[in-house]
Amino acid sequence: MVALRDFDLTVEEGSFVTVLGRSGCGKSTMLNLLAGLTEPSAGVVSYRGEKLTGPDIDIGYLTQSDTLMPWRDVQRNVEMPLEIRGVKAEERRRTAAGLLQRVGLAGFGKHYPRELSGGMRRRASLARMLAGTPRTLLMDEPFGALDAQLRTELQEELLRLWQGSGQTVVFVTHDIEEALLLGDRIVVLGGLGRIVADEEITLPRPRSVDALRVDREFVRLHTAMAAALKEGSS
């Protein structure tokens, strides 16, 4: 079964790229390739000028599903990447506590995932990914299952954490508004990963949903991306 064909995408370091597409267009397969979890049947995936042959500690991956370890409290979940690297316990605890503070979970370190709301678990997952200090963040519709208010809060939190960090983000979504709110660049995929649109987003930051909805450039981009999605599915 072919998920991506003739796919060619270059992502600039430090940029925030949103990848927009409908279900089944190969978005998740693309992220698995970029994460080194899937080997391409043809072609090459390169990362920072080197062939990617497997998972890289420089690449963090936040999937759609909840992957927090239920038997670990939140603090120890966030510590996991540091533990794997052999970081000493005191430094692990200090780093994890700082990250929990940054994502709005100070005071919840001793709670278990089952005791948290969906939005809080997403925050904890984001903190765990950041604990590994990755240069690149891959995100597969991470806020798709949340209600509108929580989604907006986490979108704003993600942008706050990213801005000035120098990190590269590839963020997959099926929501045009989310793609335009977050990204510097938007790539629209059609069937088999065919790129049907690739456009820079020049909307000024910081961005808010309410302000964007009456912005002429936002309306133009939204209309163009909706047309590209329709073209990609035809």
From TrEMBL:
Keyword tags: ATP-binding, Nucleotide-binding, Transport
GO molecular function, one term: ATP binding
Name of the protein described by the UniProt record: Nitrate ABC transporter ATP-binding protein
Domain ABC transporter: 2-216
Keyword Nucleotide-binding carried by entry: yes
Signal peptide: none
Organism annotation: Streptomyces abyssalis
SUPFAM superfamilies for this protein: P-loop containing nucleoside triphosphate hydrolases
Domain of life: Bacteria
CDD domains: ABC_NrtD_SsuB_transporters
Lineage per the UniProt record: Bacteria, Bacillati, Actinomycetota, Actinomycetes, Kitasatosporales
InterPro entries in UniProt: AAA+_ATPase (IPR003593), ABC_transporter-like_ATP-bd (IPR003439), ABC_transporter-like_CS (IPR017871), ABC_transporter_ATP-bind (IPR050166), P-loop_NTPase (IPR027417)
